[in-house]
Amino acid sequence: MGPIGGDRVSGDLGAGDPVTGRIKRDGIGTSWLDWGGDGPAVVLLHPNGFCAGVYDPLARRLAFQHRVVGIDLRGHGASDDVIESALLGNDAMALDVLAVADHLGLDRFALIGVSFGGGVGIEVAAVAPERVAALVLCEAIAIEAEAREQQHFGYRDGPDGGDHPLAVGARRRRDVWDDREAVLVSYGSRPPMDQLAPEALAGYVRWGFRDRPDGSVELACRPETEAQIFGSADRHGPVQAFDALRLVAADGRVPTAVMAGSRTDLNPEWFRAQASALGVYLQLIDGGHFCLFEDTARAEQLVGTALAGMGHGRPLVAGREHEEMK
Prior knowledge:
By secondary structure, the protein is an alpha/beta fold. It is about 35% helix and about 20% strand.
């Protein structure tokens, strides 16, 4: 198969600014962005530390053919701050997603989940397969127990709860900035954020930071929230998400696509194991862990193709792994 892709796009195409909404479930507020649109519903789930706004350029394009909603998972974006590990499990967030879908009258919808959002999407499909028309996973954090232990992913090291390196990095993240322009300049000049399409980075910075009374801005996802999701072995996390993936595969009602970046800094065997469990191709995309946000035109093509059979329950064809896609 030949390469797929193209140059980055710099402007927004499609729908206009989304409207916001918010509900509470079990005392915790969950917010969302709604780009509107006609057609089958699509729900977008973001990576850890991000927010629904990172999908903004893709969502505007998808809204030509779909009703598009992006959810700020608890502790992220405009949703309530949550730092307690026990409240940050994929299972709890899956119920938040279903509560938002209920509130919006989305009886049946497709899910697109990147990284941590993919793990949450799997849990939604496992608990409510009759409602999920399609599931698109891109570098979903769902890991077999043995692989997780080998990679030390999510385990604590020391007697005082020393964390996984990603959790350490999250706690060191700069929290307060002079303004959003300063964030854009800094993030846009260093990896991995410099790999995002400029419009995706702008969407994250717009909705992923909140204004402070003194005119500065701060991260909407608290560093401790991000760290707890990366580092806690106590919450309902990557291993349980892989178990849920097996349930989705056994149930057989949710057609699923599995994608990964060809230059991911994670273990590519995680994503091969996901595809194998589901009996589908692993689709490799030229890029890193956030490859779906690196080229908006390419993402629209990839997601549009994956969603072509949405609502029809058409399974993807099993077979060998796809060649690298650019």
